[in-house]
Amino acid sequence: MPERRTVAIVMAAGLGTRMKSATPKVLHRICGRTIVEWVIEAAAAATGTRPLVVYSLATEAVREAVAALADTVLQDVPRGTGDAVRSALSALPDDVDEVLVLNGDVPLMRAELLAALLDARRLDQAALALVAVDAIDPSGLGRVVRNEGGTVERIVEEKDATEDELAISEINAGLYAVDVAWLRRRIGDLAPSPSTGELYVTELVSLARGDGRLVAVLDVEDDGRLTGINDRAQLAHAEWDMRVEINDRWMRAGVTMQDPSTAYVDHGVQLAEDVTLEPNVILRGKTAIGRGTRIGAGSQIYDSTIGEGCVVWASIVERSTVEDAATVGPMSHLRPGAHVGRRSEVGNFAEIKNSRLGEHVRQHHMSYLGDAELGADTNVGAGTITANYDGVRKHRTTIGERVFLGVDTMLRAPVTLGDGAKTGAGAVVTKDVPPGMLAVGVPARIREIRPTGPTPAEQATASDTSAAGPGTAGDASPSARPGGAAG
Question: Is the pLDDT score of 151 beyond 90?
């Protein structure tokens, strides 16, 4: 028997007026992903094929948002769920045998449930199968109407229900598995609702029964997973439920969360064993954290890679890379393009943008490195700034290995400092500094680096003038010596 081909139809044509937003309802985000993307993932996992998303002119943004994940079809004049299915059938390949019909605003739905729904239809060779829930609060939802033998006869929308029907607590969850051959024959027989004029997909139940076909029912508990998102309050509840699931999964995989209720971890984040997340941590996008790394309280990391054995504390890291055993923070800001080398130290109020720090670079505090390259073992003094922008273009600064930058050094790009070079405190460097040389003054002048200890002549002079009191020994002015790079 040939394998059955199944495609999911995801209805996403409604703007969602109760959200009170210019953004289509299904494009609001939960744990870093749009609502409809969660539905698409579950649908694709259950069917093994790309879903077909139905959008409208009002939700045109949906088409582009899901293009990488699903096919799309336009419902030109939205007239209800039945009309959405009709629009989808026109774009459905001829070799499709059955469809799942899903609402695009149910992000907590799981592939396992959809697979079970397909199995229920196939088991009984039913025209369609639906999911029913004995709801705690059925208000606003379609009721499942059964006959005396317990067979489902029809679904009635609340707007069209009688008083007796409104008393029914069993509701239709809005998930269907349908035989496509039968659906193509009967979709044109849907009649407009007397109260709204819309075509309801739920009418397919009574059409199937009228044809003498079975309607299978999959009964599930009312655990809130099948609740659609209609307003911001429901969006927040769904975000919480999803976040609890994500955090629980990572803790069971070996991640420590000191306060899971304040750990915000997007679905795309990857965490290794023995990662520790302190309270009030936010990890977004395609972020990956290596084994044994501690993300300290108050940190926010976006689309970044943090290596093994690192510490990031009360800092913001955006689209950057931090290699193994490095430390960042507190109060540091790694802007897009920052690359912090192995064992490097980025301290408080240090900012890095589009720059690469080699191994064991120390940038301990109050400094800005933009569009720069720093070699290994370089020390960045407090107040150091790379002046990378001339008002028209950005320019790069290249700093070699073992460079010592004095406090308040300003490097006017483009400029290069060779290996072992030094700058004095307050130096404004406007031209290249050769390897092993010293730049001092404003603008900086190039000098040879004097020994750090006194020369024999200085020792003799100091001995001859010792009676003159402190502060008179030697003739070296402050600007002739490198400024201390604090830390």
Answer: no
Rounded CA separation 336/153 (Å): 59
CATH 2.160.10.10 in the chain: give the residue spans.
Answer: 249-453+475-480
* CB-count burial class (<10 Å; 0-12, 13-18, 19+) for 153: middle
- 399-415, pLDDT tens digit by residue? 999 999 999 999 999 99
- The pLDDT tens digits of the residues spanning 46-64 come to 999 999 999 999 999 999 9
Catalytic residue among 237, 267, 365, 395: 365
| Active-site residue flag, 333 | no
What is the greatest pairwise CA distance in the chain?
118
Hey, how many other C-beta atoms are within 10 angstroms of the C-beta on 329? 23
Q: Is the dihedral of CA 104, 107, 111, 116 positive or negative?
A: negative
Q: How do 215-220 and 288-289 pair as beta strands? A: unpaired
Residue 356 pLDDT > 80: yes
Number of helical H runs and strand E runs in the chain:
9, 40
Give the Cα separation of 383 and 348 in Å (integer).
12
For β-strands 437-440 and 445-448, DSSP reports them as antiparallel
**Pairwise CA distance, residues 213 & 125, whole Å:** 9
Domain with CATH 3.90.550.10 in the chain: 6-220
pLDDT of residue 462: 52
77: pLDDT confidence band, cut at 50, 70 and 90? confident
pLDDT number for residue 3: 66
Q: What would the DSSP string read from start to end of 396-429?
A: -EEE-TT-EEPTT-EEESSEEE-TT-EE-TT-EE
CATH topology of domain 6-220: Spore Coat Polysaccharide Biosynthesis Protein SpsA; Chain A (3.90.550)
Q: Are 429 and 384 in contact (CB under 8 A)?
A: no
> What's the rounded Cα separation, in Å, for the pair 217 and 184?
21
One-letter identity of residue 137: D
Name the percent of the chain in helix, strand, coil, to the closest 5: 25, 30, 45
Rounded Cα gap, residues 98 and 276, in angstroms: 46
Please state, in angstroms and rounded to a whole number, the distance separating the CA atoms of residues 340 and 345.
8
**Per-residue CA distances from 203 to 83, 178, 198 (Å):** 12, 13, 11
Fold classified for 249-453+475-480: UDP N-Acetylglucosamine Acyltransferase; domain 1 (2.160.10)
Total residues found in the chain within this entry: 487
pTM of structure: 0.86
Residue 120 · residue 129 · CB < 8 Å: yes
pLDDT at 445: 93
